[in-house]
């Protein structure tokens, strides 16, 4: 059914604008309701460890240095050096030029290296530059590529251009997995978030991701709800699973658990796995570690107990 949709801008537009509209009030109310759910103590302990395993520990600053990336990579492998039972994070996310440093430090630990590419964070560059950016990151050892769509093209209705860019970047990824970033804070409506979700999934993205973390608002519960509904419906139609990654603004364990409750309620437990759900974050991990320590020792260690990233 979806094979011929991307044959032209007109057919792609008809399909995307024919998707059911998002009830803004209903989506926000449901997200708020799910955010009030409480979980039992044993479930909370499991949720904290699961959230740690889902973190893409991220540094995307112009001042990043090899030393900072090495330290971040060491933390990803052993988030709490005093507790060997603490699980590692899913990945370390860096700029492409820092991929070799992260790769060398992580070695065969199983923690992935993710690289932002395609003229991150704006996405405004010629396609050949975006593809070269992607290939360089993969050749340097990136296991995952986080690309950004051209929001200007999307908002102008040039859906086929965005679709073809995602297809081309996926091809340039080779064996690396592709996460497609929408920058939902610039998409203006939940309907656009739903359209971008379907566009990226039909183009072959392995993950759909909310934000670069450079624009506010970044990840929100209602936006993530719309994206989770999209991946659920996409599997119903195609049989294929696509992951979801909220990124930016998720800072506390309490917030992370709200997202996990939403994943369980909207898509079901199949998505409660780092292969299908991630958190893009730099400060979230420390709060998860603080809450985890509180549960195991009965006391808070304080924010200065763990390294600052």
TrEMBL record:
InterPro entries noted in UniProt: Aldolase_TIM, DeoC, DeoC/FbaB/LacD_aldolase
Pathway(s) annotated for this protein in UniProt: Carbohydrate degradation; 2-deoxy-D-ribose 1-phosphate degradation; D-glyceraldehyde 3-phosphate and acetaldehyde from 2-deoxy-alpha-D-ribose 1-phosphate: step 2/2
Xref: PANTHER family: DEOXYRIBOSE-PHOSPHATE ALDOLASE (PTHR10889)
Entry EC number(s): 4.1.2.4
Family: Belongs to the DeoC/FbaB aldolase family. DeoC type 2 subfamily.
Reaction(s) catalysed (UniProt annotation): 2-deoxy-D-ribose 5-phosphate = D-glyceraldehyde 3-phosphate + acetaldehyde
Protein name, as recorded: Deoxyribose-phosphate aldolase
Gene field: deoC
Any coiled-coil regions, as ranges: none
Biological process according to GO: carbohydrate catabolic process; deoxyribonucleotide catabolic process
GO molecular function: deoxyribose-phosphate aldolase activity
Keywords tagged on the record: Lyase, Schiff base
Keyword Nucleus: no
Organism: Nocardioides seonyuensis
GO CC annotations, alphabetized: cytoplasm
């Amino acid at each position: 059914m979806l094979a011929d949709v991307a044959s032209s801008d007109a057919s792609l537009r008809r399909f995307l604008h024919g998707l059911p509209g998002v009830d803004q009030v209903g989506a926000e109310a449901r997200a708020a309701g799910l955010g009030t759910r409480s979980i039992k103590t044993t479930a909370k302990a499991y949720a904290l460890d699961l959230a740690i395993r889902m973190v893409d520990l991220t540094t995307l600053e112009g001042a990043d240095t090899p030393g900072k990336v090495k330290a971040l990579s060491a933390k990803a492998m052993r988030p709490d050096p005093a507790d060997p039972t603490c699980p590692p994070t899913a990945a370390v996310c860096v700029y492409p030029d820092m991929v070799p440093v992260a790769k060398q430090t992580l070695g065969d630990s199983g923690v992935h290296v993710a690289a932002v590419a395609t003229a991150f964070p704006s996405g405004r560059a010629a396609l050949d530059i975006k593809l070269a950016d992607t290939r360089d990151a993969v050749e340097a050892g990136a296991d995952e590529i986080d690309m950004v769509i051209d929001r200007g093209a999307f908002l102008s209705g040039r859906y086929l251009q965005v679709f073809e860019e995602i297809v081309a970047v996926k091809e340039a990824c080779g064996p690396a997995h592709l996460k497609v970033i929408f920058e939902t804070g610039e998409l203006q409506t939940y309907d656009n978030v739903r359209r971008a979700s379907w566009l990226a999934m039909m183009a072959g993205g392995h993950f759909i991701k909310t934000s670069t973390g450079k624009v506010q608002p970044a990840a929100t519960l209602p936006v993530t709800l719309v994206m989770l509904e999209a991946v659920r419906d996409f599997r119903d139609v195609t049989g294929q699973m696509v992951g979801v990654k909220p990124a930016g603004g998720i800072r506390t364990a309490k917030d992370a658990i709200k997202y996990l409750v939403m994943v369980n309620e909207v898509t079901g437990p199949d998505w409660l796995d780092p292969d299908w759900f991630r958190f893009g974050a730099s400060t979230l991990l420390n709060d998860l570690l603080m809450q985890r320590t509180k549960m195991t020792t009965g006391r808070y260690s304080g924010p200065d107990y763990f390294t600052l990233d």
